[in-house]
Design goal:
Largest sheet: none
Distance between the termini: 71 Å
Structural class: mainly alpha
Number of strands: 0
Length: 83
């Protein structure tokens, strides 16, 4: 029976092994492979960062942080709208 700790340890060690394999066997074969590897990592990392930013913004919106419906530029000081 595999425990959660065993699973996490195996997952982390596999991720480290994957990084070592990519750097030693794939990226360092020739200069073009290295440039392709860097640009691929940049595209995936950038897309992940944008998606994380949007997800955190949506989560904040659900908790009422930065809710544009609370404040309107058309409302007066007492919240009475334009006349």
């Amino acid at each position: 029976m595999v425990t959660v700790i065993d699973f996490v340890v195996r997952l982390v060690t596999s991720a480290v092994d994957l990084i070592v394999i990519f750097v030693t066997d794939v990226a360092l074969r020739d200069p073009l492979a290295f440039v392709s590897f860097l640009f691929g990592a940049l595209f995936v990392g950038g897309a992940s960062a944008v998606m994380g930013y949007l997800a955190l913004g949506a989560l904040g919106y659900e908790f009422g942080i930065g809710d544009p419906a609370k404040r309107s530029r058309f409302e007066g000081p007492q919240g009475q709208g334009r006349r």
